[in-house]
Records
---
Amino acid sequence: MAGTLPAAGPAAAAADPQRLTVDLAASEGPVTLGANGALYGLSDDGVPSDAALEPLKITSISQKPEGGAQHPNGDALSVSKSFFRNGGGEINVMMQDIYAKWPYEDLGIDDYLPKVDKIVKEVSADPNSDRFVYIPFNEPDWIWYNIGVADQAQYEANRDRFFKDWKTVYQRIRAIDPDARIAGPNETGYHTRLMTDFLAFAKRENVLPQVLTWHELSSGSLRDFQGHYDNYRSIERELGIAPLKISIDEYANRRDLSVPGQLVQWVSMFERNKVYANQAYWDAAGNLDGNVVRSNIPNGGWWFFRWYAGLTGDTVKVTPPQANAIDTLQGLASLDTSRRQAQVLLGGSAGDSDVVVQNVSRSVFGRTVTATVAEAAWSGYEGQHATPRVLARTKVQVAADGSVTVPLRDMHKMSAYRVVLTPGGSGAPTAASVPWTASYEAEDAAITGGQVYTQGTVSNANGYAASGTKDVGSLNTAASKVDFTVTVPKDGTYDLAILYGNQSGAPATQKLSVDGAEPVTVTYPSTENWTYRAKKDVGVELSAGTHVLTLAKGDAEVTLDRIDLTARTGVPSASYEATLADISGRPSYDYSSSAGVGTGALVLRKGDKAVFDVYAPRDGYYTVVPRASAAVRLTLHGETVSAMPGRPLRLYLVAGNNRIATAAANASVRSLDVSGEGSTTGTLSYEAASATLSGGAKVVDSAHASAGSYIGLLGNSPASTAQFTVNVPRSGRYLLVVHYAHNDRRDNGHAYNTDIMSRTADITVGSGAPRKVTFKNTWSSDDYWTVGVPVDLKQGSNSVTFGNASAWAPNIDRIELGRVVGRS
């Protein structure tokens, strides 16, 4: 457990804490949010979901040209619809991804130019053409041109061939799209030799890129990037080139992706230098490079980027314990004087740290501040992460020298932390309630019939992340098991989170027993591979003291990384601070009282809106309570409901992130409080066998489907449909939750990309217009995921029809219906 001490100033500890200093008086310029991009972060319209995409305020993504053969999906124009409607910035078009092979087949510039023409004509015809950037060459230092060769004479020959082709393609693009923005040279890594020559040539020939790009793809980048950046800017100055926008359009390794404590190190150095950056694409498209589970569920990485998207105002200078060092405590910070908020994001190191915030202006903050500390932990690439836990809310006196010290203790290396400072006002914030929790590494447990493996490390940066850099695999014999010795402080129910991997091709099981008692079965959904970590949550009853928790082989092999035990303290709940919500209009911030969540209140008037990102562990009903001074209007899934202060509403939330918009004529809002476990009381469920099928669609037996069967062979013909007749008690807006599975893939022969594909279905309610819905690959045809679709139904009987005239629809296990606003 990471925690904080409840007072400012130095804290007693066995060793001196590390010190991360934030200077609120040293502005670095406006927050750019440049480092939140992703290469192939989107695969299809709806993957990831709008609710997962919009809150991150993504400034750039990189995708392939329409119809490109490099991957089966992720076409720039196709994903642009969802990207732009969710506030996305610009799209880099990786033009050479028109080719199928990796490295790209070298058929000569004459083969490439007609492809360039086609790409530019299509992009320039798009209504949003000004939001696309052309990247004509990808890693030319080794693909096609071999410019990284050591021999100087050979280098110059190869360089000159690249420069000639750069000029040709550049001019070809501009001939079709005179306003085109072009990016390059897009090296594999930063090389002073080529960069100097390239800029000199491009300036002389009037073919300078509008965006300067290169890649940072090694652990050493955390040490070396600042030097690369400084060197590049010095070359610009020497050549008399005005500063160009820089995009590091591929960054980070597998061991970094999804890991908040690693991501904060990368993002801090890019944001500090005001460059744009896209995470690298090492695995599957459509999950923002490892930060979205399924299509709509946050993991720890998603929450870190959500925090990053919440920075406003200017970034300010942060001095870490060590600058430009690999795997060390790093951070970034912002100050918004209009909102009277300072935020610090930090992580990357275990142990104790003091966050020392200097120059806390009395005119902005007053004599006291509320310090709110939260943790975004690593939950795996595909492990769900609930709303980050608040570790401390403390009211702190600003010291005479204008500083505030916030101590963090027992930090986790893979976690990121957020410290928010707001004016203290009167009263005191509600103390944070932090349940007892402990973690146990699988490699430290007693292992029978298994093997310890080392995963992503500094020297093996493209190995997958693992807690403690080790996991336990090869648990593939009848006797294979891992015995964890755990000690808990009191009798009660504990939440057991198991970080695992399952590449068996179907849901796999293990047998969980406590102290050798009768085991229960734990079922693990499939994952991309043994090390693409996911998380399974189960509950266990334990008495105070020491126990042995055994996870033994069930019907297939499962890899184990770590278990976490957390005392269950009641129904899961979270308070979402209004002053940290996304806003539109011109609401004001009131910090006169620090009661409740401690961060004051957001005052909404006509035309103002605040949007909360609310997590739900599963589809179902939750209790939502606005803490406000007057009535507010909540909008969820397209339905608006009036909410009285302090009065609970029963609202249907989908698994993962839900965006709840709040508006009012005049109300002071402190928080939106959400509790529950996803009740299905009052929902309607219809199994596959209840549907009327036509055109070849049929019911298929399956041991993994909820009632033993699913609808298969659906679609691929206008005649192939599945029609459910549903009866609802009231007219209104409902959530149609589709339980589905499919495992469409197209192997493009890449060593490291898993080319999964999505399916779509046209859903028609009654005689209405069909709505196309995208269903992401579920890793196996026996794993059922859910997608929630808002629909309007009339009281009584309604038809809900699934089909796809031109391709296969997903297999459908069952559907559920829940009215958005349930009966309390």
---
Amino acid sequence: MTSTVADVMLQRLRDWGVDHVFGYAGDGINGLLSAWERGGDEPRFVQARHEEMSAFEAVGYAKFTGRVGVCTATSGPGAIHLLNGLYDAKLDHVPVVAIVGQTARSAMGGSYQQEVDLHTLFKDVASDYCETVMVPEQLPNVLDRAIRIAASRRTVTALVVPADVQELEYVGPSHGFKMVPSSLDLTWAAPVPGEGDLRRAADLLNAGEKVAVLVGQGARGACEEVTTVADLLGAGVAKALLGKDVLSDELPWVTGSIGLLGTRPSYELMTGCDTLLVVGSNFPYSQFLPEYGAARAVQIDVDPTMVGLRYPFEVNLVGDAAETLRRLIPLLERKDDRFWREDIESKVDRWWQVMERRAHTSADPINPELVFHELSPRLPEDAIVAADSGSVANWYARHLRFRDDMRGSLSGTLATMGPGVPYVIGAKFGRLGRPCIALVGDGAMQMNGINELITIAKYWHDWDDPRLIVAVLHNNDLNQVTWELRAMGGSPQFLPSQELPDFPYAAYARSLGLAGVLAAKPDEVAPAWEEALAADRPCVVEFLTDPAVPPIPPHATWDQLEKALESIVRGDSDRVDVIKEGVKSKVQEFLPGRGGDS
């Protein structure tokens, strides 16, 4: 029996160890779908409710497994729908391969149905590699390169396969002119800087008295080395949001997240240090780093194109984070004076006390901070947590204390709405035995999360561990944007854009055969988490939260807060008094000298 191009493509994916492909059907990939049937659904085809969700699921799979995620879609609209998820992968440096259909070669250029210039469409998102398979002999080379480039450069690649090519008899490249053979093997080398550069970095770090370290997702495999460096230098360590799971939040010198969604100790760490070491992070907001000229700085990153971008670093070390730090450690001198470290630890301790008080501030009906505060100690030791974009990201960043084996992520750079639920679906297929939790606002849930509950209902019986929780903050408000309007735009709330229709999330989950829990009062929050974590199937736990609890950033100024309050008053909101009291209680904790009734 002869093999088609589609048969060989799927076999090649199997040879690469690809075990799942996230996609949605269409006649532009009929040849591939037929090959899937002949191949016994290997690799497994996971059907999302929308192509964008397929891409997000591939991103979640890749983020939480470290392997290449693969998604597929038909030509035209299917390929277009993949874009948002693919951009999420590209901007967060996640390896994803997109395989998309195209109209038959005989129709190309004829304004045929669903004909889209896919090379132009993917020109930016798959800029490292985007190729169209025009003849069978191009395989397996183009597929191998797509996977190899995505994996090695941690980026998005795309393969366009016209519908008629998928069904052609496969003929491999011959040993001849203008033929390109290929191979499967992929080995890794850990680049390291030279000794001279390491010595320059060590001299700079040794000279500092108040050292701050910032780690990102590129330091995920260097936890032990970062810990050793921080101990030698008496440093505090802040975490970029994509690096939240790099170090345990139970370490007393870990200050937590940095930036708009960050913590006060991280903000003070950066404003008070005289020396900065950045490891594996492309954190974009330089205003949260030390003032220019206030600190000397060293950066370590595996990607030579990403060094020196965010701060005037004196030494840029290009290399694998763990291996570079191992070579740097013998050159570092232990700082005997621990005043800086002790000050950091006292501020971290106070921060967690503040978080507990904030979580228990009264609200109507439930303070969203209480939801996250009650989840944190209940997180399973091997939990995988995904947060969506919106106000939930604030509480995820500040309230959840990750421990050593926990994993967490969100759309860090694109900050798109909607990946929370598909992320954990992808994670569930890649890490079947681990409990997964998606933390989602009602805006993102209505955007696409509701539909992906159908995907969960379709597949959960296949998972070794059925624990998948979707937690929804139900406040009928696009809350993050509402507060941004108040703080930056001086607008109280433009209801036509911000107000969301009501929806029974937990009841809908139950209608699908999933578990559904509703918490409508503060004393129901902890029992709701307990019930969801003990459920024998995926569970939607719905919290009726107060939209008047402000996600105040650590750098908030008194003027910004006054502007937010004034905008609320102008709106003649019936919640003005509640909101003003909420802001006041936060101000007392965040702004030194503004205690009491200031």
